[in-house]
Amino acid sequence: MITNKLQRVHRVNRPLEVGETLLVPHVVRFERQPLIGSGGHGWFNVWQVPVMWPPHTDEHDGQVERHFHVDSRFTNDQAGRVVCLVEKDATQQLHWIGARVLRSQPSEQQRTPVVLIGKAIHRMPCKALRNGKCPHKGFNMAQVQPDAHGVLTCPMHGMRFWNATGKGIPYLPGQQEGDAPNTNVDEDRLWRQG
Fold first, then answer.
1. Does residue 65 sit in the same domain as residue 117?
2. Fewer CB within 10 Å: C terminus or N terminus of the chain?
3. Which residues are CB-neighbours of 97 under 8 A, at least 6 positions away?
């Protein structure tokens, strides 16, 4: 596969199509193992996990290590939600690899539950899409399809936006992810209350 002609996934400004191939960041882990018959050692690719761009930290959640979220659009494996990239570890590297889209939207099980980051979202100065990106950690929201209520949900951390305006939608106390937003409330007042 010629990867220099493929588009990097984070630069795609539309929902992804099942079957298309894009350049996707993968965290790849290597282990040094003896080569049979040679008496020497070699590096072997042990696993590779497709991840969402950009890498970030979540200090509000106690995750101070720079990490990526697993991009379930490119894997059937349930590798967990988060992959840390230890940059000083020579056995682990970031590689851009051509990968085929298996599902157009990320799995909800791969997303960090909004209850873990709700307070941090309320403290953010900007609560609307900026240049089509989530203001929390910069995910390209042009790749997300709106739900039946016209809501875009960021696949990284669950921040929600009105598709028509790009304005952020606060979660009400007791509201669960996937619940329809309450259109009879003053959202600006809820944002201010945090």
1. no
2. N
3. 3, 23, 24, 26, 48, 50
Kindly report, residue by residue over 99-147, the tens digit of the pLDDT.
999 988 877 666 665 555 666 666 666 678 889 999 888 899 999 999 8
Answer yes or no: do 97 and 23 share one domain. yes
* The two structure tokens encoding residue 39: 């008496």
What is the identity of the amino acid at 59? Answer: E
The type of residue at 121 is I
* Interval 140-174: pLDDT, tens: 999 999 988 888 888 888 888 889 999 888 766 55
CA distances to 4, 62, 76 from 106, in Å: 25, 24, 11
Q: Which of 79, 110, 141 is where one domain is finished?
A: 110
Question: From CA 38, how far away is CA 44, in angstroms rounded?
Answer: 15
Q: Say what the alpha-carbon torsion angle 16, 20, 28, 86 is, to the nearest 10 degrees.
A: -20
Closest CA to 178 of 117, 114, 130: 114
